């Protein structure tokens, strides 16, 4: 009996090491400080665009890892999940990521399926961002890719990723016979990202993107994101800084300062400067984020209005978000 119990325990322990279940749930309250909440004011960036109390998303990530290969499925629901997957259904479960991978060697991994983008500083799941609302740069690029990628550990400091995928945010099938190319070169936490598709049928065109950051002591970190996009002579460009200060083990402050602009004859060089100040208070696995945001400049994607509901060149809001991770 002792031998049988030991064997069963060892088998269960091995299974627990292979199977992982993680995820998050978030909700928020938002009110506009410079506009009525009932006039449809919006920043025009992805997610968190509703006034009053609102649901963000819930996601469940299940991974299983074998000795050489494994699989991951990431299911999301709620408005944020629907926006990330371009779905009109905000109730039923939606596939955010679903991929298989093969560790060909200690330095090479192949991934096949749908996986979240390598472009940009921010990510879809709010638990992975310091600021709760999203930047214009992140909102303008792809959220996910459907295809095949290869990751190479070139050395202790250098990494390389090469990808062949369907065009921009074509998450299921490509009916046009076109494909996109992606590449990422990493060095000590700094990443140079390249993406190209033909730009046809709503494609993104060409984009070059830098994402990285630097630690200045134990309490201060500066994140950086800059990108340039061109699609047949038109596109966008911009840069964002993310200074973050840890004031205690449970509380920190983060600022996002972003300049974003459109270029090309059809866009009239519209631009916006967005400043977002976020606090982050952690209690066990619960993260509470109060946030103040002010966007000023030309209206690009959003609906900037003043207290009378008339068009305005700025918009301010207060947001209180709660995120639980497991």
Automatic annotation (TrEMBL):
It comes from the Bacteria. It holds the Pfam family BBP2. It comes from Algibacter mikhailovii. InterPro entries: BBP2. This is Porin.
